[in-house]
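Request:
Um, any thoughts?
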Amino acid sequence: MRPLLSERGCTIAPGVRLRSLAEVIDHLGASGQTGIIDGTEIRVRRPAAGRKDREKFISGKNKQNAVKSMVVTDADGRLLFCSLAQPANCADITHARQLGLVKLLTDGPVVEILADAGYQGLGAQTGGRVVTPPHRKFKKDAPDWYEEMHERRRKAHSSRRIRVEHGITHLKNWRALARHHGRREHMTDTIQAIAGLLPHQQTITLAADERM
């Protein structure tokens, strides 16, 4: 069932589903919406001893065995896309490049994509379409006015992209992604299957809340 569910894509309207990153960029461009991207890690079983790529699954951030997926939501936190799973030592920006995000943004419609500091560098490659937190111009002895301005800009950016964290939280509320005990080879299908089911769950929940 997992491969069949993973092929359904994310439902954004009755009969309208997004199955690829290219379709997501086209949808954001046509609707004039802002997209938000972030990487999320899911813990997995430790690879067997002696496996050549064993170290690739160790997360540099959490020091745990995990796989990583890039999540895309709209400005309201609605899930639009989950990428294939990669070993956790793959940097967020490298994963985005491997998925073809740079080419899709430079050759496609004008779209604003919000991202965290892990994607700094994509802004220059996409003509400013990927927006990351502001760089610090003073590393030492920064004037008080600059510290205040930098903090204000950083918080403003963070408040705009916090919705992707909400989308990831809804995704990981499913037990299969809290910690995966099955085969790592099935992770891509599992993540994308849950991403396809999540919009239906949220629609049912909203309808129940409205009736109450």
User: Anything to note?
Assistant: The chain has eight helices and eight strands. Residues 206-210 have pLDDT under 50 and may be disordered. The first strand starts at residue 10 and ends at 13. The radius of gyration is 18 Å.
